[in-house]
Design brief:
With 200 residues, this protein is of the alpha+beta class. The protein has a single domain (52-194), classed as Jelly Rolls (Sandwich). It is built from 3 helices and 8 strands. It starts with a helix and ends in an 11-residue tail after the last helix.
């Protein structure tokens, strides 16, 4: 029998994941429609875009970054882009999230009650680079731990990513092929290469 606190924690986590899932799917549909110019764009149904994404393929990640008083400028999370379609992030008041803008790192100031939405690599590929996957990192705080909750809108591994319009600058690939290539690159070079590996 589970402890009541564990049950309550599980129920809250499921509720948060469900709400973030609905938001991420709705935003992805709206962004796809905007890219194609009108609400009933051929090939895009808001309720089904992106295809292959559901509660079995998407996931919620709870992050804790302990304080790091001994080493200033320590990464809580190294610079990277997300490999999904969209990421919905809720961060606490501590801060530490930075994104790359105009070739420099910019701190993302926490705003109470606000969510952060990042475009991921799959949306960049599907949009033929009209939407850009944002490079970001997390820096630790010297005195205060940081918490965040991230929801990743991901398709199944066998889902073809496709494109909003032809021709595409990318060769056809599935999400599974993309993930495998990212993992191979990290093992081989120590960093993610990402979409450039799939350019035609």
């Amino acid at each position: 029998m589970l402890c009541p606190r564990v049950v309550a924690y599980r129920d809250v986590t499921r509720e948060v994941a469900s709400a973030m899932s609905k938001l991420a799917s709705t935003l992805a549909g709206v962004l796809a429609e905007a890219l194609l110019g009108h609400k009933n764009a051929p090939g895009v149904e808001r309720e089904r875009f992106p295809e292959g994404c559901d509660e079995t393929t998407c996931f919620l990640r709870l992050n804790r970054y302990p304080p790091c008083p001994l080493l200033p400028d320590t990464f809580g999370l190294v610079p990277h882009t997300d490999s999904d379609f969209l990421t919905v992030l809720c961060q606490d008041h501590v801060g530490g999230l930075q994104l790359m803008k105009d070739s420099r790192w910019v701190a993302v100031k926490p705003i109470p009650g606000a969510l952060i939405v990042n475009i991921g690599d799959l949306f960049q590929a599907w949009s033929n680079n009209r939407y850009k996957s944002v490079e970001h990192k997390v820096m630790t705080n010297a005195t205060t731990e940081r918490y965040s909750v991230a929801y990743f809108l991901c398709p199944s591994y066998d889902s073809p990513i496709g494109t909003c319009r032809e021709p595409s600058p990318y060769m056809p690939f599935t999400f599974g092929e993309y993930r495998r290539k990212v993992q191979e690159d990290v093992k081989r070079t120590g960093k993610k290469v990402g979409l450039p590996s799939f350019l035609v």
